[in-house]
Amino acid sequence: MKHSFKKTAIVTGVSKGLGSHIASYLSKSEFNLVLTYNSNKNAAEKVFKDISKRTRSELLKCDITEYSDVMSVVNKAIKGLELCNSNQSVWDFLFFKSCIAHNEKTKIWKNN
Questions:
Q1: Predicted TM-score of the model (pTM)
Q2: Which domain covers residue 22, as residue numbers?
Q3: Which of 28, 43, 58, 71 has its CA 20 to 30 A from that of 52?
């Protein structure tokens, strides 16, 4: 059964590793999810298919180094955005963080 929660989280790099684990964990809590991948679409779609069984989610291709990609993801998620997880490099994380800095309630996790 899919739930529609008021909280939304962005999780980057969901095609493997930490991103997929965090997305799976959050899908079992009170979050709608905006999931991103950069190049491994097949793996990301498998994670998305599993997560979509538990909560509302959307899968988007996003090159975290491209401003337009990041803003597209942020604009999809901004209503109710409370959490952003980034598995990317420090530079990419700071770029992503600057794109959502206007939402003071957003919690941002940096894993690397």
A1: 0.72
A2: 8-110
A3: 71
CB of 63 closer than 8 Å to CB of 37: no
3 lies in some domain: no
Question: Whose structure tokens read 């996003």?
Answer: 62
The string of pLDDT tens digits covering residues 60-104 is 999 877 878 888 888 877 666 666 666 655 445 555 555 555 444
* Residues whose CB is less than 8 angstroms from the CB of residue 1 and which lie 6 or more positions away in sequence, other chains included: none
101: domain CATH number is 3.40.50.720
Dist CA 6 CA 17 (whole Å): 27
Is 1 a member of any domain? Answer: no
Q: Give whole-number Cα distances, 82 to 10, 38, 50, in Å.
A: 9, 22, 22
Question: How many domains is the chain built from?
Answer: 1
* Structure-model confidence comparison of residues 10 and 42, the more confident one: 42
Answer yes or no: are the C-beta atoms of 11 and 29 closer than 8 Å. no
- The CA dihedral of 65, 15, 25, 89, to the nearest 10 degrees, is -30
